[in-house]
Specification:
The protein is α+β, with helices and mostly antiparallel strands. The chain has helices at about 5-10, 75-85, 95-115, and strands spanning about 15-20, 20-25, 30-35, 40-45, 50-60. The longest helix is centred in the C-terminal third of the chain and has 20 residues, at about 95-115. The mean pLDDT is about 90.
C-alpha cells in the first residue's frame, strides 16, 4: 500500500492525524501511533509513563487491507489481546473483522492450545 492509502484508511477507522506523517488512536489505556516514514511503516504503543514501544516495522509492500477491511499488520496482536485479556475490540476493527476473530481466529488458537494441555 502507498502511504497516502494508509493515511486515508487510518482517518476512516478512528485514527486522528497527530503530526506530519503520524496517526493515533486510543485502545484501552494505550495510544497506538502509526508513522508513515519515507521507506517504512511503524506502529508504536505509547505508554502513559511517557515511553513508546515499537509494535511493528514494515516496508509498505507488506501492508495491506484484508478481506475484513482492516490493515493486516494490526490484526493478530489485537485479536490476541481481545481473547487473552477479554478486551473489547479496537475501534478500528470492522464488524466483519470482529466476527472473523470470534468465529475463526480465536477458536483456532484455543484448539491449538488445547492440544498441549
Amino acid at each position: 500500500m502507498e502511504p497516502e492509502d494508509i493515511a486515508e484508511w487510518a482517518l476512516n477507522h478512528g485514527f486522528r492525524k497527530t503530526g506530519h506523517a503520524a496517526y493515533s488512536a486510543w485502545y484501552g489505556e494505550y495510544e497506538y501511533q502509526m508513522l508513515l516514514r519515507r521507506d517504512v511503516f511503524l506502529i508504536n504503543r505509547l505508554h502513559p509513563a511517557g515511553y513508546k514501544e515499537n509494535y511493528a516495522r514494515l516496508s509498505y509492500e507488506h501492508v495491506w487491507v484484508n478481506e475484513q477491511g482492516v490493515l493486516e499488520c494490526l490484526v493478530e496482536a489485537f485479536v490476541r489481546r481481545m481473547w487473552h485479556d477479554d478486551a473489547a475490540p479496537p475501534p478500528w476493527f470492522t464488524e466483519e473483522m470482529i466476527d472473523h476473530a470470534r468465529e475463526v481466529m480465536i477458536p483456532t488458537w484455543e484448539e491449538r492450545i488445547a492440544r498441549y494441555r
